[in-house]
């Protein structure tokens, strides 16, 4: 499996002298495109009704659970990044922590899958899952992840989102109530028209 992973990596990784335009495109997806996710969550919270806000909380909690799972993976099994073993090329400076699974994609896809599991936001979730693919490609192309890191991220994202949906009474409801109280007291106090929609 390790040999296959490295072989696939070398097929997708940037050549020694790549197109500068392609590098810039990859850097955009690898570093900045993830900002789309918190923007969607913030808009969903500020403009949505109670049901939408709960979906936002569920998506956020899915991402947190996914990242915790990733941390446990890193503690149990350290997998060096490609540049750490001098494999391929690297065009994105990165700390030499464990590569598996990708935190970047786990965050992105946990939110995406969480939305996809709810009828109300299924199209948005599906779109975000697809939009995660160029992010996955970019991080392989720039030399900080292997293809299997991305597959691992998707599996973790599915597991995290499924847990949050199945156990939302224990996971989502308490966090939603806490955030609603904070929102009402801190934000809605100075802007009454922004008070949470119920």
Automatic annotation (TrEMBL):
What keywords does the record list, in alphabetical order?
Answer: Hydrolase, Membrane, Transmembrane, Transmembrane helix
State its Enzyme Commission number(s): 3.6.1.27
> Where would I find the Phosphatidic acid phosphatase type 2/haloperoxidase domain in this sequence?
54-165
State the reactions this protein catalyses: di-trans,octa-cis-undecaprenyl diphosphate + H2O = di-trans,octa-cis-undecaprenyl phosphate + phosphate + H(+)
Keyword Electron transport assigned to the entry: answer is no
What Gene3D superfamilies is this protein classified in?
Answer: Phosphatidic acid phosphatase type 2/haloperoxidase (1.20.144.10)
Name any one GO molecular function: undecaprenyl-diphosphatase activity
Residue stretches spanning the membrane: 20-43, 55-78, 123-140
**Record's Pfam families?**
PAP2
| Record bears the keyword Signal | no
Q: Which InterPro entries match?
A: PAP2/HPO (IPR000326), PAP2/HPO_sf (IPR036938), UPP_Pase (IPR033879)
| Name recorded for this polypeptide | undecaprenyl-diphosphate phosphatase
Recorded source organism is Vibrio marisflavi CECT 7928
What phylogenetic lineage does the species belong to? Bacteria, Pseudomonadati, Pseudomonadota, Gammaproteobacteria, Vibrionales
């Amino acid at each position: 499996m390790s040999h296959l992973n490295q072989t696939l990596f070398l097929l997708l990784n940037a050549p020694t002298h790549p197109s500068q335009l392609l590098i810039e495109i990859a850097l955009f997806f690898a570093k900045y495109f993830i900002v789309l996710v918190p923007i969607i969550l913030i808009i969903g919270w500020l403009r949505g009704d109670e049901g939408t806000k709960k979906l936002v909380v569920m998506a956020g909690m899915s991402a947190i659970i996914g990242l915790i799972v990733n941390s446990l993976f890193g503690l149990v099994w350290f997998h060096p990044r490609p540049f750490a073993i001098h494999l391929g090329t690297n065009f994105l400076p990165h700390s030499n922590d464990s590569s598996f699974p990708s935190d970047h994609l786990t965050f992105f896809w946990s939110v995406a899958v969480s939305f996809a599991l709810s009828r109300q936001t299924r199209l948005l979730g599906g779109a975000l899952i697809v939009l995660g693919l160029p992010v996955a490609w970019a991080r392989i192309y720039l030399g900080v992840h292997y293809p299997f890191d991305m597959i691992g991220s998707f599996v973790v994202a599915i597991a995290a989102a499924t847990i949050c949906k199945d156990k939302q009474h224990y996971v989502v409801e308490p966090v939603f109530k806490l955030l609603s109280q904070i929102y009402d007291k801190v934000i809605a106090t100075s802007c009454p028209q922004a008070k949470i929609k119920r």
